[in-house]
Design a protein that fits this description.
Beta-Lactamase; alpha+beta; globular; binds methionine sulfoxide
Length: 147
């Protein structure tokens, strides 16, 4: 993951005129720049549930996820990024597409408060590593400033 790629994505977010546009820009930028990111979406906190916002990829049945469920719920509860190399081996996983093999979920935080999260699925196994985590945590920080 090159520094210029992260800068390009963060730049697109920072130029967005509002929160919703910033989320749409983040989703589009990630999907365009990283073709192995098969599904890219943003969930926002609403009480003790995560609500699906902008996304690109197949429609997901999981438009509202309680904090007690899924890899998404776990990342928000733990306030930490979660990488799952093999979704079929993780009992927390809520399936969105039969093709999905791996997933990363990155909380969008303001201080200690979870505002939402970036959720990305890949059709490739173990598609996400430390470089993805670092880049996506910077994207999450950029998004937090707009929400
Ligand atoms: N896989 C997520 C659910 C969201 S869909 O993948 C879009 C989870 O386990 O929480």
């Amino acid at each position: 993951m090159t520094e210029s790629l992260t800068d390009r994505i963060v730049g697109r977010i920072d130029r967005a005129p509002g929160g919703h546009q910033a989320m749409e820009e983040a989703v589009s930028a990630l999907k365009e720049e990283l073709p192995h990111y098969s599904w890219v979406g943003i969930y926002l906190m609403d009480g003790d549930e995560l609500v699906l916002g902008p996304f690109l990829g197949k429609p997901s049945p999981h438009t509202r996820i309680p904090l007690s469920r899924g890899v998404c719920g776990a990342a928000a509860s733990e306030k930490a990024t979660i990488i799952v190399d093999d979704v079929n081996a993780d009992p927390r996983y809520l399936a969105c597409s039969i093709e999905t093999k791996s997933e990363i979920v990155v909380p969008i935080m303001r201080g200690d408060v979870v505002l939402g999260e970036i959720d990305i699925d890949s059709d490739q196994p173990a598609a996400f590593g430390d470089t993805d985590r670092q880049m996506l945590e910077r994207v999450a920080t950029a998004l937090a400033a707009h929400l």
